[in-house]
Amino acid sequence: MQSPEAPGLAPDAATFRNNMTVTFNVLHAAIRQGITRIVIASSETVLGLPFDTPPPYGSSSPRPTP
After folding, report:
1. What pTM, to 2 d.p., does this model score?
2. Domain count across the chain
3. If you write DSSP's letter for every residue of 14-36 in order, what string do you get?
């Protein structure tokens, strides 16, 4: 899998193919073991946010009023 800290080390198609294959293998193994519930988690790095710049939201962002 491509690390979000080092984008561009592999072509996008290769990264996608690898991620899909690994995901399929993990889910297929879970099914074979009788696991019926799976939680898939992610992080904000899927948005492509750099680590050296604060995200455009957080404690300093204005909060909507109810």
Report:
1. 0.53
2. 1
3. HHHHHHHHHHHHHHHHHHHTT--
